[in-house]
Design brief:
Blueprint: H1 7-40, H2 43-81, H3 88-111, H4 119-123, H5 126-147
Helix pairs in contact: 1-2, 1-5, 2-3, 2-5, 3-5
């Protein structure tokens, strides 16, 4: 016996997807600061980058794609939540990887032409965008899992 379709779960999924965006961007910021510190091994360069360049690039380049991916991942996990609660997190991860590869690796380079070793070329690489999608989808799935209890 299947349960009826619930718009409440769909809206909860969208909410979880939107909420996962800031969490993932904050985690990206912390990892970015750690990578800059490791690569430069200079306190002042790390401090300047973490206070100016990195937050601006995350906001200007990743904010809109992250919100778009969060909403779409939320729709996916909201639909999956109507079928099975156990599949919420795997659906979030798979949806996150697929959507991030399409949006960050295919569509974003068409809008912003990447140049050698700039922020757009880094985020549009398949491995980095895939990892970003896994984290975004996983966080959205976890939030949805907690909400749907």
């Amino acid at each position: 016996m299947s349960s009826p379709f619930s718009f409440k779960k769909l809206l909860q999924g969208v909410f979880a997807g939107i909420l996962s965006g800031p969490v993932t961007m904050l985690l990206s910021y912390v990892i970015g600061v750690a990578v800059v510190a490791y690569n430069t091994r200079d306190f002042w360069v790390t401090a300047l980058t973490s206070a100016s360049f990195l937050p601006l690039m995350l906001l200007l380049v990743l904010l809109i794609p992250t919100v778009l991916m969060g909403v779409l991942i939320g729709l996916v996990i909201g639909l999956v939540a109507n079928i099975s609660r156990r599949l919420i997190i795997p659906a979030g991860v798979v949806g996150g990887v697929l959507l991030s590869e399409v949006i960050l690796s295919v569509i974003l380079p068409l809008i912003m032409t990447p140049e050698s070793n700039d922020f757009t070329s880094i985020i549009s690489s398949y491995s980095v965008s895939g990892i970003y999608g896994v984290v975004l989808g996983g966080v959205a799935g976890l939030i949805m899992y907690w909400i749907s209890k």
